[in-house]
Amino acid sequence: MFGTLLSVALGGAIGASLRYLTNVSVMRLAGPGFPYGTIVANVLGSFLMGVLVVVLARRGGNDLAPFLMTGLLGGFTTFSAFSLDTLTLFERGEVSLAGLYVGASVFLSLAAIAIGVLVA
Questions:
Q1: Residues 116/51, Cβ–Cβ less than 8 Å
Q2: DSSP structural state of residue 32
């Protein structure tokens, strides 16, 4: 149990660091004003989750699931940042943009996980 907890913690630290780097990189490319970085992290993470769920199941790698799925991808994707980004857009009076952000995030993340399953 303790080994699994350490595995999740290590994966989470790596995932959170990768999310930070993704947000910084995307902001440099796209500029501020819209939370593109969070969308990129959530869509990419959803795609990778779809791939991993198939690959790990087929190859009997479920012992890696706590590190990869709960830790790494759990740290990389973030619903709390999504919620904060949505609230921030709403508070700035950009209600339509907040709605677009919610719709795009949900649709693209669901599409990405389905594509990840198909690819794997």
A1: yes
A2: S
